[in-house]
Amino acid sequence: MHRDFLPLLPPPPARIADIGAGTGRDAAALAARGHTVLAVEPVPELRALARSLHPSPSIHWLSDALPGLPRLDGEAGRLDAILLSAVWMHLPEPSRPPAMRRLHDLLAPGGRLFLTLRHGSPPEDRQMYDIPAHETVALAAQHGLRPLQHAKGIDHLARDHVHWSTLTFEKDHP
């Protein structure tokens, strides 16, 4: 699913946060590669399902959400990578700058942020925004995150009206 990100992942064992971990697919894949994963998911039902699907001592489940991620306070400056897969598009515009600041603060120097953006008409029954990649790149730069990669891809659910951008950023060393 995230083959564009794989060559840019830090070597194991790294501390990686999967923000909006859902049913745990990505957290499990990262743990299987030898990483310690903080799987952050605000929906209790999804966390419970994920724990049952992916029982791993390398995955630590937390209830938290952007923009603040207050339960991750002890992780400031300690994460080697953060993954936001199909998450950023749920944040309204006023929440994006503080969320980006928080992601920057959680990353260690040289840490990487991996982010996917959904493009296309959002479903009527969900709060979702079609955020241009260039807007996210500019916001990340304002918060000290340097772009490393921007790739475009198809929708893996074969929806003709949906496509994706994958963005990778790196926090500069002091």
From TrEMBL:
An example Gene Ontology molecular-function term: methyltransferase activity
CDD domains: AdoMet_MTases
Domain of life according to the entry: Bacteria
Keyword Plastid: no
GO biological process, one term: methylation
Alphabetically ordered keywords of this record: Methyltransferase, Transferase
Pfam families: Methyltransf_23 (PF13489)
Protein name: Methyltransferase domain protein
